[in-house]
Design goal:
The chain has 356 residues and is α/β, with parallel strands linked by helices. Helix content is 34%, strand content 15%. Strands 8-7-6-9-10-11-12 form a seven-stranded parallel β-sheet, with helices on both faces. Strand 9, helix 11 and strand 10 form a beta-alpha-beta unit. Helix 6 packs across helix 8. The longest helix has 21 residues. It starts with 6 loop residues before the first strand and ends in a 14-residue tail after the last helix.
């Protein structure tokens, strides 16, 4: 006799929160896809084999099974599926073959607009990544300001501090940090940077209430570019042809507006910044140094960055901690539980915040 419980489809792996995942079996039938490819998955959807699936828990690495959740795939999903609970964490156990650049709170792999058109709600894991990402952000700000990468490279090459010596770095105290994107990570970064004596200004699509902004000062985007000593990118990547496009938000014209010797840091999405324009700005000295955890064409990195002594580079490790990844899994499982028990998601993506 078949179970009358709603079905929950697991796309990817549970690595840490096994107890929490298994606890869902009390209220749902937990299933996995039968085949390893997108073609297999589409066939399973179209055959009716996944009928009764109400929610899916999907991971960053599951893109190797399904491909992107694009219009074609979303159209093939069973009519019963109403919730996509997305965890952007990367476990490292199975590196996605296509090097998809999404680890953390991002959900670039899911076409939210196509989901909305079909009445499917999407969630992500926003606040679970805030501390770890902002920690990485602050590490890159300090490292880039001080120009540590120059000496670190020389040390590993057996040249001690290097010849010639690296240019003198800068202290964070008294510097103006411009945060582009004042969501949870941006606000967490604000608090950390204030502890280093930095003055904070920000630009956001919507000006924050004073209680959320704290001591950070709101400025228009052009003023932030013109007056910041350090610029940090902490906003989502919106694909082209969509409202609020942020692809190459920072490119040659924006670099020209910045202070000479500016420091720029990106822990958000690589394609928000034009890497070729960044390399040019580094080479001319317009940008003193940069700190990057994300790249435009991950896992490929622009060759002009790889060898540049003033480019401090981390291979997308902003959420690469046991504690953060366990928290992300637990958060996403709670999204599934909330969907099943209340018909609502704990953390719907911003595009669907007002979806009925």
């Amino acid at each position: 006799m078949s179970s009358r419980k709603p079905k929950v489809l697991l796309l990817g792996q549970i690595v840490h929160a096994h107890k929490e995942w298994q606890a869902l079996a009390d209220i749902a039938e937990l299933i996995k896809p039968k085949g390893p490819t997108r073609e297999d998955f589409l066939e399973q959807c179209r055959s009716g084999d996944l009928d009764g699936v109400v929610a899916t828990y999907r991971t960053f690495e599951s893109i190797d099974i399904t491909g992107r959740f694009d219009e074609e795939l979303i159209a093939a999903l069973p009519e019963s599926l109403k919730f996509i609970c997305h965890n952007g964490r990367e476990t490292g156990k199975n590196q996605p073959a296509n090097g998809e650049p999404e680890a953390g709170a991002g959900y670039d792999q899911v076409d939210v607009h196509a989901c909305t058109a079909r009445g499917i709600r999407v969630s992500n894991v926003p606040t679970a990544v805030n501390d770890a990402t902002a920690d990485t952000n602050m590490f890159l700000i300090i490292g880039a300001l001080r120009g540590f990468n120059y000496g670190m490279q020389a040390l590993r090459e057996g040249k001690w501090r290097g010849r010639p010596f690296p240019p003198l770095g800068h202290d964070p105290e008294g510097k103006t940090l411009g945060i582009v994107g004042m969501g949870g990570i941006g606000r967490n970064l604000r608090d950390k940077a204030e502890a280093f004596g930095m003055k904070i200004q920000y630009y956001n699509r919507r000006r924050l209430d004073d209680d959320l902004a704290g001591r950070a000062r709101y400025v228009e985007f052009k003023e932030l570019l013109r007056t910041s000593d350090v610029i940090s990118l902490n906003l989502p990547l919106n694909d082209k042809n969509r409202q609020g496009n942020t692809r190459h938000l920072i490119s040659k014209p924006e670099f020209e507006k910045m202070k000479d010797g500016v420091v720029i840091v990106n822990t958000a999405r690589g394609a928000i910044m034009d890497e070729s324009a960044l390399v040019e700005a580094l080479n001319t000295g317009k940008v003193f140094s940069c700190g990057l955890d994300v790249y435009e064409d991950e896992p490929k990195v622009h060759p002009g960055l790889i060898g540049h002594p003033q480019a401090m580079l981390v291979p997308h490790m902003g959420t690469w901690t046991v504690e953060t990844q366990e928290a992300m899994e637990t958060w996403n499982i709670n999204n599934v539980r909330s969907a099943l028990e209340t018909g609502k998601l704990k953390s719907p993506v911003s595009e669907q915040a007002e979806m009925e």
